């Protein structure tokens, strides 16, 4: 989302750019809000089955991934502190750390998914069809929500990767870093969504 | 006012950049050109929708029923709905007149994010093209109705996934416009343009944009779930796997009811601009109208389940939503009251835009009141899924938003094109439009009361007369549309040059040349008065 | 959802005068890690504790990220209002949906 750079750069409005980004985040919050609504609807319908199915998930991996994402959020915000102080090398180091942590998250996530597939737990599988209704819905929601979140992680990584490039090329500087702030905002939102996903799926048991 | 200004700045219609002709338009981030791109594409899709509606009416004359099959009829009403809703009335006034006039009305040179603005038009066109592709590819045109209700939309072999994806993209375009408008209104108002000095059209766009941001994503995720359901069978909506179709209905209407207010609020805003100009009076109850826009946006987001009264909701919920539905009528009525009061004791200058604005008020009142009827639970059960519903929402969508669109087009046409149309021809087109409209849709209200179900290909003999009247009405309506748009197309090509301020309007767009120069203003104005400050008042 | 109250904050332009340092954010991160630990701990005591942990601790965690990491602390009332309006709307959606689900 590099909507902040005006076509006719008449004047620069950093606050306007951040406002635009926040409004975009509003749509993201409501997008996931719709899924949270679906989750709570189904959970109130099948409390016992959700409890049981949640036990199937590997909580250790979920918690590890939470710590990974929280730390990556920290490094993004530290990158902004660094650019405010004009320290380009530190900015780039922090951003690179974030990118690395984001990749770690994806790797762990894909292991998790692969295990589930291995156990025959995936949408439309023969094994899943034998489970109680509530558990089928639980896994449907699990794959949808973590999958959509994963796509957002990939999008966020691409945005931050581009920011890293812009810092390297000197397009993001001490007095002009609103792009980095907006990229960071997006990444934090991805983190916040995961903060909610952890207890909903992994700790529900 | 500023004839010398035109010599200084070229009008936005002239190509000033490196690119010429069509390419200059397709790559322009000028909000006025983006608005015009929307206008041309939207009117084209509108006529496709009209054509489909015309055929649907025609085959309801029993003797023409062999023209198409029942399956085609299902596809036709689906596509008619998708085109009219997602390609015409939802983007409708904001994308055309909002893009063109919002920055001018608040004294800005452009919207906050001009490139994003152009991008939203490309999203719109991609969605439109996908929607049209879905008719001819895959398993054939979708036949679910525009609501895409599960479980049928999960099971049908027709091309639902592509149509749903198209609606997803169109929703994205709508959200981007919303982001742009809110940021523009917050950041780019001219010096002295306080919140309560903004023209009320801007207020209505502000309210609309908030609904776009807060409701559209729910539709987006719901449509994604339908696609996932069809592609992977995730089972959230599928009763066989423990899912619940009622959840779909909830999610769908959480967006799609507020969407009705996305459609009608800007229309109300445009009417609010037109009436003071032709009554030569400041609008009656400025703040009441501004706040009623915001409260329609607020309360209108909380009434969605009145579409589901017969679906098996809890009885508590049904009562709650019935109450909330009745409450929305209050801010809408406040607006009607204020419009009428604005006209009272005004010095009325009767011109085509005013005629269409008054027609809007009349038709919208019928649409609104039949809406309140449906909020009443006992009546709702009787008329659910009948022609009464079809008649009602056409009164609101077409009689309301459509006629407001026409009124706004007549009002701002001279400014946008720099040309004036033949007023006599417009008056002449109004006659078949008005007669045809009421023959078509009022008859539907009656048919619905009698028990004619919607979306049926065949009908019982006792409904024959009603269907015949409605079909003849549709002929008048189409005739009127051709006369109306024919007049405007002719005027845009060969019309006389329009004055800068043909109606004596006082909002900012009337202080600049027609058509507006590229940068809108020679110099950003400083605002010192309320928006509807007519000079006559002080003299009197 | 009516947000005319946001109007006043308009011209609270760029961030506050001085920017927060590294230390602030590291402390917030530590708090987040501790809260995560608490959440996991609570979930071991059984279902109802897990739900309470979810309902209380998770919003606090999200709030910390919003307030500090996303710099809402340093922004004017407008952006805070935007977030509150969004969350408020979602809460109302939940409440109205449960007027159906809970009473069926």
UniProtKB/TrEMBL annotation, chain A:
Residues 1-205 form the Heme-copper oxidase subunit III family profile domain. It is a multi-pass membrane protein. It comes from the Bacteria. Gene3D superfamilies: Cytochrome c oxidase, subunit III, four-helix bundle. InterPro entries: Cyt_c/ubiquinol_Oxase_su3, Cyt_c_oxidase-like_su3, Cyt_c_oxidase_su3-like_sf, Cyt_c_oxidase_su3_a-hlx. Keywords: Membrane, Transmembrane, Transmembrane helix. The chain crosses the membrane at residues 21-42, 62-81, 93-111, 141-164, 185-204. It is found in: Cell membrane; Membrane. Its main location: membrane. Belongs to the cytochrome c oxidase subunit 3 family. This is Cytochrome oxidase subunit III.
TrEMBL record, chain B:
Coiled coil: none annotated. InterPro entries: Cyt_c_oxase-like_su1_dom, Cyt_c_oxase-like_su1_sf, Cyt_C_Oxase_1, Cyt_c_Oxase_su1_BS. The keyword Transmembrane applies. Gene3D superfamilies: Cytochrome c oxidase-like, subunit I domain. PROSITE patterns: COX1, COX1_CUB. It is found in: Membrane. Residues 19-528 form the Cytochrome oxidase subunit I profile domain. Its main location: membrane. Keywords: Electron transport, Heme, Iron, Membrane, Metal-binding, Respiratory chain, Transmembrane, Transmembrane helix, Transport. It comes from the Bacteria. It is a multi-pass membrane protein. The chain crosses the membrane at residues 37-59, 79-102, 122-141, 161-182, 203-228, 248-271, 283-304, 316-334, 354-373, 393-413, 425-452, 472-493. The keyword Ion transport does not apply. Signal peptide: none annotated. Belongs to the heme-copper respiratory oxidase family. This is Cytochrome c oxidase subunit 1. It comes from Geothrix rubra. The lineage of its organism: Bacteria, Pseudomonadati, Acidobacteriota, Holophagae, Holophagales. The gene is coxA.
From TrEMBL, chain C:
It is found in: Cell membrane. InterPro entries: Caa3_sub_IV, Cyt_c_oxidase_su4_prok. The chain crosses the membrane at residues 20-42, 49-70, 82-103. It is a multi-pass membrane protein. Keywords: Cell membrane, Membrane, Transmembrane, Transmembrane helix. It holds the Pfam family COX4_pro. NCBIfam families: caa3_sub_IV. This is Cytochrome-c oxidase. It comes from Geothrix rubra. The lineage of its organism: Bacteria, Pseudomonadati, Acidobacteriota, Holophagae, Holophagales. The gene is coxD.
